Amino acid sequence: MTRSSSHAWIREVLSNWAAWACQRDGGALGYSSTNILARIGGGSRGGRGTDHVPVGVQSAETVDQAMRTLRHADGRAWLVLMLQYLGDPRVPARRRRPLSTTEAARALLVCADTAIRWRVEAEQQLIDILARSADRGRA
User: Would you tell me which of 13, 40, 85, 90 could form a disulfide with 18, CB atoms 3.0–4.6 Å apart?
Assistant: First the structure.
């Protein structure tokens, strides 16, 4: 896997994990967050329900564990990914939203270029953690 494709992959993984984490933190308890008409296409959103999380629970839990590992290993990297994928962890979960690169840079008190570099480095650290986790699972 090339470096650019691995970063595209981890961004998709993190986006899916963020959707799962928002649903988990939102207190969904396994119940749908939209009515049946919205899910099957009768809603005004063009048939796209918002309650579908495009990731399995086991996969999401693996990424969640990797994020916890990253938090203990490198708090700054964890914060950068949280800001960009879930939102500011200081904000209550129900009001949290992912920040743009510019907003994340402001929250981190750095320029946007530095925030982008930090995000790429954090994504690489998470890729490494997930790879080590997969290697342990095979052994």
Answer: 85
CA atoms within 13 A on the CB side of 23: 22
Q: What's the pTM?
A: 0.77
Q: What does the alpha-carbon distance between residue 97 and residue 85 come to, in Å, rounded to a whole number? A: 8
pLDDT digits (tens), the chain, 139 positions: 666 788 899 999 999 899 888 877 655 455 555 554 544 444 444 444 444 555 678 888 999 999 999 999 999 999 999 999 999 999 888 888 999 999 999 999 999 999 999 999 999 999 999 999 988 877 6
CB 98 within 8 A of CB 18: yes
Q: 21, 31, 29, 22: which is closest to 95 by C-alpha?
A: 22
Distance, in Å, from the CA atom of 101 to the CA atom of 119, rounded to the nearest integer, reads 9
- Residue 123: which of 87, 83, 81 has the closest Cα? 81
